[in-house]
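Methods — Computational structure assignment.
A single polypeptide chain was analysed. Its primary sequence is given first, followed by the predicted tertiary structure written as structure tokens.
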Amino acid sequence: MNPDIGTLDMEIKINPRKHQHPRAGRASASKQPAASRIPRITRLMALPIKFQEMVDRGEVRDYADLARLGYVSRARMTQIMNLLNLAPQLQENIVLDPEQVETISESLIREITGLVLWQDQLNAWEQVGRRARRAANSVFSGCTMSGPGTPAEVLRLVVQKGKAITR
């Protein structure tokens, strides 16, 4: 090495991370009660509302821009934005009454968005809710249910009956 060139000594301290659950340790440190968990579908319903506001204000050009920003496909963004096609009463139920929608899957909600008439959506929603209540009651009373076994099957029957009526 050339003696005219100075040397630089540097010390770098690296602390290895311990793999913990992100919330581990926080609950014991704070005396606040744990917040109730917001169902995924409720959080998902808030997204298209916010996204549409962003498009309306010109913050983003279109849904494709939103998809790029969110690192999701345009098809997924369409699925999310189609939640705006739900009847306003259903949107309110999903956002304001999270306990009611806790057991309802996103795929079932997407099937309901496929119904064009809001009244058909409301009827399907009521059928799904009625079925979920019966299922909950049968678990506690030990009764068995007859008929379709899942809310998705109930919705499919409602849609089929609706198609038969409209033909």
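Note: The chain has a mean pLDDT of 77.
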